[in-house]
Amino acid sequence: MSKVAVVYWSGTGNTETMAHKVLDGAKAAGADAVLFTAADFDATNMEEFDAVAFGCPSMGNEELEDSEFEPMFSSCEVKLGGKKIALFGSYGWGDGEWMRTWEQRCKVDGAVLACDCVICNEAPDDEAEASCKALGKALA
Known about the structure:
alpha/beta; six-stranded parallel beta sheet; 6 strands; 35% helix
């Protein structure tokens, strides 16, 4: 049984909803999955998990949230080499540039992207929720 962490930051609740669907998908696929907020996770947790889903909405100028999520993620980057991960998040405007930049950053770090990222505009609809569940299953 694989062990999966689902780590997220959410300002409006949209990315939190997505995180719960990722968790549901991982558990449905048989993983031992645990949900964390960005404040409750750091690089020391990385070794405990076979795979990690990171979720963060687009903020400001299409960037990761900078007070909690970015510092946590930066601390984890040194542990991404060869690690199976997946990315998800919501946005209110723009075209998803923050996610493309984030994916590229993870590839440079040597992470193994388990599947395509999942993004949605505002609150996740049924299709986005199904994609989040599939993302969780891909990590399991």
